[in-house]
Amino acid sequence: MKTPDWAAIKGDLNEHGCAVLGRLVSKEDCADLSRTYRDEGAFRNHVVMAQHGFGQGEYKYFSYPLPALVASLRAALYPPLADIANGWNEDLGVETRFPDTHDVYLKRCRDAGQSRATPLILKYAKGDYNCLHQDVYGEHVFPLQLAIILSEPGTDFTGGEFVLTEQRPRMQSRVEVVSMKQGDAVLFPARYRPKQGRRGFYRVNIRHGVSRLYSGERYTLGIIFHDAQ
Fold it and tell me: Suppose 49 and one of 7, 27, 55, 136 were both cysteines; which one would form an S-S bond, judging by CB atoms 3.0 to 4.6 Å apart?
C-alpha cells in the first residue's frame, strides 16, 4: 500500500468534503479482488439494487475472515482516520471519541450487537447506477469510509463517476464528481462533516452514489470501518 499524504488528505476533506488516495491498491491486487467476486464462499450477502430501489447493479458483503488485503487496509487506514474523526467530533461538540486501533473499535461495535462484516464489492454493468445514500448499519457509525476503483476507467468501463452531494442548511446542495484511476480510493464522510461558519462549526450532511455506466463493467471495493447488526 502506498503511504498516503495525510496532511494533504485532511486539507482536501476540509475544503472539498472528500479526498483521493492515489494508487492505494496495485493493478494486480485490483484484478485479484475483482475475481474474488465470483467466489460465493467469500461473502455473507448478495444484494441486487433494483429489488430494493437502490439503483441498478449489485454488491456482495464479505464474511469474516476478510481477505488478507481487505483486512490489512482496514487496520492500517483506521488509526489516521480515527485522529481525523476525533477532530471532527471535537469541532462539532460531540463527546464520542474513537480508540487508536481498529480492533478496539470493532469490540465496541460487537458489544453493541454489530458483528457482521461490512466491506463489500460492488459490480456495475452498462446502464447501472447507485442512488445517493449513506451506509449506516447500527448505533456505531465511523465517520469516514473509502471506495476503491478496481477497474480501469476508460478501458474497462465508461461513465460510472463517483458522486457526492452536500446538503447545507438553508442553502442549495453542492455536488462533487470524483474522477479516479484503477487502484485509487476516494475517502469521504459516512454521514456528515464539520463546516466552519460565522458562528462556529456546523454539520453538512453527505450522500454518495455512482452515475450511470455507459459501457463495460465497473468493480469497486468499499471499506466501511464499523460493522453491521
Answer: 55
